[in-house]
Amino acid sequence: MSQREWIEKDFYKDLGVSSDATADEIKKAYRKLARDLHPDANPGDASAEERFKAVSEANAVLSDSAKRKEYDEARRLFASGGFGRGAYPPGAEYTTGGGGFGGGEFNIGDLFGGGASYTTTGGDGGIGDLFGGLFGRGGAGRGTATSSRPQRGSDVEAQTTLPFRDAALGVTVPLRLTSPASCTTCHGSGAKPGTSPRVCPNCNGSGIVSRNQGAFGFSEPCDDCRGTGSIIDDPCTDCHGTGVQNRSRSITVRIPPGVSDGQKIRLAGQGEAGLRGAPSGDLYVTVNVKADKVFGRNGDDLTVTVPVSYGELVLGTTLSVPTLEGRVGVKVPPGTVDGRTLRVRGRGVHKRGGGAGDLLVTVKVAVPQNLDDSATEALRTYLEAEKASGFDPRADWAGA
């Protein structure tokens, strides 16, 4: 695919979003389309498979802020005629020819609006740099053809849901993924087993060809090898020469202790396979944590509310409180007020750098709903004694 063809693609239309869509809107649109169009959900449907490839390609560009910025800028310039209606192909590397521009410098800032001065004598900062990140290569020096970088595989996103305690302590979980992966038949080369790709004779393996037009020379991806630098005469029958095929695989993911709800875990190289042996993308696993009936969380601190009786707060007691790793005794001093929080050091959620947060124990009085006659009479006797001692719970309250 030429750079012009790439720029003319409307990735926003492929995903069904506007050009000013937020990253979350793009993510939601891609997830829905990928789920609806996935080959596993549409067996034998070639049209759905092509749409699946198109939305995957669109997401690979629009979900990457740097690639999206370059893509938007390239489309803006292309639409405005900034490339001279084909006279100066997008992504071409410009050098001066044999005259007409004196010292070999030419101000083409008007093409980009803002008056930036671009020189054509080599080095960084040329037009090629604008498209370098988008098309997998940086700007080249004067008149030189640089090798195309292999097209890295796209990143893949997955989700897993964990119980609260597993998330706090860490756990290993299996994941089942269906995504483009390195072809097991040709091992990613794209060539039929027993054969190998050959060096493209047109670009000598660089993936780039140079030609002159008027006073300018520019380089662009080689049409014969599509910028890969190699030609496959006998393609692999399973992947049709791409080196990639959709397949399901199971992987084991280690979730570190202390992961929080919504946190992403990155697994380098576990995403989509790159074309023809290029590096694979990464896998990002979003962890959803279920709420727990006993524990809560405040940062690295573990929280728990323990029901107690009025007498236990007045006289003091020692409570047996659960933690993530067994139980611990918590001393409640005499005269503790309802709702007080007691801190137990180092019994909370494990931290990334080592150590753990604290356990925060909040005591809350449980009021009995049914008392027998002896308990009721004892309580009345206590209230009389309490009143006789001069205790008034509402003294100095609300102007009393």
Automatic annotation (TrEMBL):
Q: Where is the CR-type domain positioned along the sequence?
A: 170-248
Where on this chain does Zn(2+) 2 bind?
A: C200, C203, C222, C225
Iron in keyword set: yes
Q: CDD domains per the record?
A: DnaJ (cd06257), DnaJ_C (cd10747), DnaJ_zf (cd10719)
Which InterPro entries does this one have? Cyt_c-like_dom, DnaJ, DnaJ_C, DnaJ_domain, DnaJ_domain_CS, HSP40/DnaJ_pept-bd, HSP_DnaJ_Cys-rich_dom, HSP_DnaJ_Cys-rich_dom_sf
Which BP terms does GO give this entry?
DNA replication; protein refolding; response to heat
PROSITE patterns referenced in this protein's UniProt entry, alphabetically: CYTC (PS51007), DNAJ_1 (PS00636), DNAJ_2 (PS50076), ZF_CR (PS51188)
Give the location in the cell: Cytoplasm
Please list which residues make up the signal peptide. none
Record-stated family: Belongs to the DnaJ family.
Record-given protein name? Chaperone protein DnaJ
